[in-house]
Amino acid sequence: MLSKKRFLEALDIIVNMFPEAHGELEWETPFQLLIATILSAQATDKGVNKATPGLFAKYPDPESLAQADVADVEQCIRTIGLYKTKAKNIIKTSQMLVENFNSELPRDKKLLQTLPGVGRKTANVVLGETYGIPGIAVDTHVERISKRLDIVPQKASVLEVEEKLMKLIPEERWVESHHHLIFFGRYHCTARAPKCEECPVLEYCKFGKRNLNG
DNA sequence: ATCCCGAGGG
DNA sequence: CCCTCTGGAT
């Protein structure tokens, strides 16, 4: 298991690899970020960004999306995976925002998660991006990197990964670190063919050393 | 544990 | 072809 000190050293190197790391979903309002993030489940941000302009042109706010026809919303987002479930969820979420939350996003993590399609990861992303509320969203990249660096057991749940990262990283760095880890996972420490042979944190990485030695 | 599910990459 | 993508609900 990698120590806290060693992990923070590796994290600083990762930060320097992608100093400009940021959220890549495109949105104009907190509501649109929420919808885009719901749509991003098991989908690439590029795929989501391709569909959301058309969706938001027709349904820019909770009021309009709350009254939308399911079939039309499905049409708008059909190129994104899991589109049937997502169409239903974003309409219902919009209805709940209008009816229960005065058309505004609840800033409370638990409350936000009462919206259909919004789980822990999505709530963390939205609250961090819009209001700067500290949190670490554990997606497929963050989970993979945490396990490759061996800061959690290979069988750890995403919640256990989140709790471990919150222990290792100072709270004021949670939101930015999340983005750095994502960029590292998306563009370097990829799932399929990770670039271990040219990796600046190889000396910290159990997985990488084993990967190169065979 | 299983289902949902299209696009892009290797 | 097979794997992966800023998961969530049952």
Automatic annotation (TrEMBL):
Give the range the annotation lists for the signal sequence: none
Q: Which residues form the HhH-GPD domain?
A: 39-187
For this chain's record, the cofactor binding note is: Binds 1 [4Fe-4S] cluster.
The UniProt entry, under InterPro entries, shows: DNA_glycosylase, Endonuclease3_FeS-loop_motif, HhH-GPD_domain, HhH_base_excis_C, HhH_motif, Nth
EC id: 4.2.99.18
**Keyword line:** 4Fe-4S, DNA damage, DNA repair, DNA-binding, Endonuclease, Glycosidase, Hydrolase, Iron, Iron-sulfur, Lyase, Metal-binding, Nuclease
Tell me yes or no: is 4Fe-4S among this UniProt entry's keywords.
Answer: yes
Tell me which Gene3D superfamilies the record gives: Helix-hairpin-Helix base-excision DNA repair enzymes (C-terminal), Hypothetical protein, domain 2
Extract the SMART domains matched here: ENDO3c, FES
Q: Which cofactor does it need?
A: [4Fe-4S] cluster
Question: What is a GO molecular function of this protein?
Answer: class I DNA-(apurinic or apyrimidinic site) endonuclease activity
Q: Where does [4Fe-4S] cluster bind?
A: 189, 196, 199, 205
Instruction: Give the family from UniProt.
Output: Belongs to the Nth/MutY family.
Function field: DNA repair enzyme that has both DNA N-glycosylase activity and AP-lyase activity. The DNA N-glycosylase activity releases various damaged pyrimidines from DNA by cleaving the N-glycosidic bond, leaving an AP (apurinic/apyrimidinic) site. The AP-lyase activity cleaves the phosphodiester bond 3' to the AP site by a beta-elimination, leaving a 3'-terminal unsaturated sugar and a product with a terminal 5'-phosphate.
Q: What is this protein's record name? A: Endonuclease III
Q: Which organism is it from?
A: Lactococcus ileimucosae
